[in-house]
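Project standup — Tuesday

K.O.: blocked on the structure for the chain from last sprint. Re-posting the sequence here as requested.
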Amino acid sequence: MAKALIVAAPASGCGKTLVTLALIRALKERGMCVASAKAGPDYIDPRFHEAASGRTAYNLDPWAMRTGTSDGLIDLLGLDSDLIVIEGVMGLFDGPHRHRGSTGDLAARLGLPVVLVIDASHQAQSAAALARGFADFRHDVEVAGVILNRTASERHAETCRFALREANIPVIGAVMRDPALALPARHLGLVQAGEHPGLEAFIAGAAERTKTSLDLDAVLRLAREPSTGIQEWQPLAPLGQRIAVASDAAFGFAYPHLIEGWRRQGAEIMPFSPLADEAPQAAADAVFLPGGYPELHAGKLAANTGFLTGLTAAAGRGAIVYGECGGYMVLGQGLIDAEGQRHAMSGLLPNETSFAERRLSLGYRHMAHASPLPFAARLRGHEFHYCTEIGPAIEPLFSATDASGGEHTDHGSRLGTVMGSWLHVIDAEAIG
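H.V.: unblocked you, prediction finished:
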């Protein structure tokens, strides 16, 4: 089993994604085989990991995944790698319910050391107090070292280092503040990796700076083998035997562990691009439309009659047609963009989506439904969109509560073999 470590931070926005990408590429350039994962529900960061490593990056979700699922994915990542770098989510101890499901929980369960990335741009010696507080907060979570990010000068970095030495917190390195080391963002997070025209140059530059800013040998000394269990990974059942999966800049939010799980159960995955006006393959007995950013491409999707008529044909021959979030939008009657312009969609479900009237909905969800489709009867997932839904209510697809078990709501629609909702499925609910 490959050794592993976790890159975390006191809060979002401290630069842990940058540090993770730089570490992955710098170690890869040393000739190491580096695998990676992202804690929590995130579609964007893992794709950046893949650009840095050249390997599939998986999500490890301490709240939404069964233990056997996350352990199975760690085992998969470690099969032919020298090191697994796991990037945390939000702050180290931030979780969905009573601080459960945090990056800290993942570190404790796996027995892995944490490298804490601290944004030093507005502090100096106080960085030591911050790090000491995180190190002492939970006895079962080991903060094994600190990376200082966005330091203003070598003098600033040395001031922080001295205070951290006094606090008995190892400093692995310091990364100077540099406007070039910033990734573009939009309303739901970073711009996708495939949309970043200079991504390779960005990662290469970050790795070059890391070689002189961080002690890579110290990073490797900190890593240790994760403590995975003996439970077998039991993936969610595939939607069909031959599954057409929409995959392009408009539909990029598919969790790799779901797709890999279907493959391992013998399903054939058949990618197609709605933006290229490709229809689902006629041989497919199921169509999966993941989330993404269809609102940024609404005009083009509305004009792509090959794609839209192909969806209708798939539903007409009885194929399962399942959409999540962005995919759910496209299954509806229409999509109103941020400028108020309406674009006709497939019309397979009665809902309509408006980005002219925005409302943020996000959070983990316990999910249940009575039908055997699309997946197991009880699930865990998350909701993450910034729009409103218009349209008549028909048979809901899911009944859901938030992570605490409150705020019961119905989600989505089902009409024959066509179904979808705003919710992104992550895994089956653990029994007991």
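K.O.: great, moving the ticket to review. The chain is about 30% helix and 25% strand. The chain has two domains: 3-222, 242-428.
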